[in-house]
Write a structure and sequence with these properties.
351 residues; alpha/beta; Rossmann fold; two-stranded parallel sheet; 15% strand
């Protein structure tokens, strides 16, 4: 049976991917650090390999004999040096380890829409649109993509760029649900209603599996053909990419909030609060996702992309509408005590 390696297996997306692969009866190997918390993984059904991206020998051992590698490990916040170390150097080291194998595995890299940047005015972003990341995080993820290209002539490589990922167990999007549920308040950056790309974790897993099985692979261009490096890059988003105002109302419906106040936050105030939060996280020595780097993204413009390539080449279709996926996520939060129970609220069918 082919062996599959998942890096970042203990993370939000990683644990959902591992569970799906185990459910399918796949032979799964999870690359973890000694300090990794494995409580969300089915330990009896997977094999663990202790490794990190600074140890070339253990990386080689981790990818040896694998048919497919899903690279999800990375850092979403931190200093520029930390982001580059984890997101750029990590991707470079892993792709190099794959290239050294006698039969290199298929490498599916989970990057980010932040690596591509905001969409041009009045247009949805495509793989052909020049990547112009606006944040340190986005630049580090783009650097990881470019590092993988160095080995693409030997390693069959595809890149997936998700937008905002949400779903059961997600903590980063939860504050939106919490604020709307408890305060009936939805704070948005600025006074223009920017549009955003979102995808439910289960739909993202579907797309990753389709990419591994049927996706095109990036080729190093030898003759200046730019399409060679565009093929094999896929976005991950629900086709409905709402404005932040619309998203607030959709979440309000999911949590049965009733009347909702949409509160625009002026840019100077947002930067001040983010700066204070970043300073506090530095003093306390903790990672904080609300920081000035995220403000760069929040005020940069629309984060939307076309899904035509993914639908045409991979046959990707979300199994449920975005509203149903938000309903299901709110229901999970209620069932697990993250949100107050709401007996009168019913969710859509599960996938």
């Amino acid at each position: 049976m082919p062996k599959i390696l998942v890096t970042g297996a203990t993370g939000f997306i990683g644990r959902h991917l591992v569970r799906r692969l185990v459910k399918q009866g796949q032979q799964v190997q999870c690359m973890v650090r000694k300090s990794s918390n494995r409580q969300h993984l089915p330990e009896s059904d997977v094999e663990f390999v202790i490794s990190d991206f600074t140890d070339a020998a253990s990386l080689g051992q981790a990818v040896r004999g694998c048919d497919t590698v899903y690279h999800l490990a990375g850092q979403t916040s931190g200093s520029r040096a930390t982001l580059n170390l984890m997101n750029a150097r990590g991707c470079q080291k892993l792709s190099a380890a794959c290239a050294q194998q006698t039969t290199p595995p298929t490498l599916v890299i989970v990057s980010s829409l932040a690596a591509a940047g905001t969409s041009p005015i009045n247009h949805m972003r495509t793989a052909e649109t020049s990547a112009i990341p606006v944040s340190n995080y986005g630049r580090s993820k783009r650097a990881g993509e470019l590092a993988a290209l160095q080995h693409a002539s030997r390693v069959p490589t595809s890149i997936v760029r998700p937008g905002i990922v949400f779903g059961p167990e997600n903590t980063e999007v939860f504050p939106i649900f919490q604020s709307i549920s408890q305060l009936h308040l939805h704070a948005v950056p600025g006074f223009s209603s920017r549009r955003v790309s979102l995808i439910h974790s289960e739909d993202l897993i579907d797309l990753l599996l389709l990419t591994a099985r049927h996706g095109k692979r990036i080729q190093q261009s030898q003759d200046g053909d730019s399409s060679a490096t565009h093929n094999g890059i896929y976005f991950a988003a629900d086709p409905q990419q709402p404005s932040l105002h619309q998203l607030g109302r959709m979440v309000g419906k999911a949590v049965n909030a009733g009347p909702l106040l949409i509160l625009p936050i002026a840019e100077p105030i947002a930067w001040l609060v983010a700066g204070c939060a970043e300073l506090a996280s530095h003093v306390l020595g903790i990672s904080q996702s609300f920081n000035t780097d995220k403000m760069r993204e929040a005020f940069a413009g629309n984060w939307i992309n076309s899904m035509e390539r993914e639908m045409h080449e991979l046959g990707f279709r979300p199994k449920q509408t975005l509203q149903v996926r938000l309903d299901q996520t709110a229901d999970w939060y209620r069932q697990h005590g993250w949100l107050p129970s709401s007996p009168e609220h019913s969710v859509g069918p599960s996938s």
